């Protein structure tokens, strides 16, 4: 990361945090904090439980239910890597592409896929590094521009000139980036629980740094992987179950659902690859000098999101020429799973909006 992409409108906290010494300091502080938490886990669980991992060579049966669609692999033309994806619908239907976040997979979109598959071809990908998708070995392979290129390849190779693009969490960042770099491929954009990358960069605050502590912790090597894997991926379970971080409506996620996310991260090298997303985000700063998104945008935001402050949702509007921001009272970070009926309704209304025609020229 570098200050070269910040402008004078950035907050003082952003200017300090994005300097070389600021990043070094924050990474060091939260690395020690993360190591301390990892050590506490080790003491609490004991050696045997801390290193317990259940072998998951096959996906849980629930993940293979045909109600969600057909499981396929696609080899991307630009990179040669293969991505796993699940699709439902006919090739002649309009396409919606869903991009998951961390620590999730295609399955986080199960409620949206079932709902929209009656009218659309729905495609949910496992991004590179997740599940059985290819896992490139280097941090640089997870730069956000490369991830956006993966999405562009998927759209084109499935035979479409454009699609409706939907992203959540880190998948939201990838979706924002795809819309900026490949505007011709994105008809409409739906973002959930993720600010525009320039808004995050420009509006960083002390409270947001605390919320984002894990991003700084993930900059160190080995220990974050141990932290996430401890006690058979208790990190994943707690992320969805704990009152401070989990879903408000616990009936909307089962232990079987969480097992699918554990399966995703338990594949060889998957945990390291997933964490490399955050390492690449810090080490390879993206140039978003052309930051405005021209496609119509729906930004859905849970007011009780524990990862991102509500002010970042407001700031994101500055970088969109046509945006609808919907703040959902009581909504958590996991709104697509937590309140699917509300989310699906907002999406459906947005999809059915007719574009405003340019006025005819007068002669």
Q: What does this entry look like structurally?
A:
This protein is α/β, with parallel strands linked by helices and 363 residues long. 43% of the residues lie in helices and 13% in strands. It has 14 helices and 8 strands. The chain has helices at residues 12-17, 20-50, 110-116, 144-157, 170-181, 197-202, 206-211, 213-217, 223-241, 255-266, 270-283, 310-316, 335-338, 340-352; strands at residues 70-75, 82-88, 95-99, 121-125, 163-168, 186-192, 297-302, 323-328. The protein has an 8-stranded mixed beta sheet with strand order 1-2-4-3-5-6-7-8, with helices on both faces. The protein is globular, with a radius of gyration of 20 Å. The relative contact order is 0.15.
Question: How do the helices and strands line up, and which of them pair or pack?
Answer:
Layout lengths: L11 H6 L2 H31 L19 E6 L6 E7 L6 E5 L10 H7 L4 E5 L18 H14 L5 E6 L1 H12 L4 E7 L4 H6 L3 H6 L1 H5 L5 H19 L13 H12 L3 H14 L13 E6 L7 H7 L6 E6 L6 H4 L1 H13 L11
Parallel strand pairs: 3-4, 3-5, 5-6, 6-7, 7-8
Antiparallel strand pairs: 1-2, 2-4
> Cα distance, first to last residue?
52 Å
User: What is the 3D form?
Assistant: globular
Largest sheet: 8 strands, mixed
Helix content: 40-55%
Low-pLDDT residue spans: 1-6, 357-363
Instruction: Going across the biggest sheet, name each strand in turn.
Output: 1-2-4-3-5-6-7-8
Strand content: 5-15%
Please tally the β strands and state the result. 8
Structural category is: alpha/beta
Radius of gyration: 20 Å
Q: What series of H and E elements makes up the topology? A: HHEEEHEHEHEHHHHHHEHEHH
What number is the mean pLDDT?
93
What's the tally of helices? 14
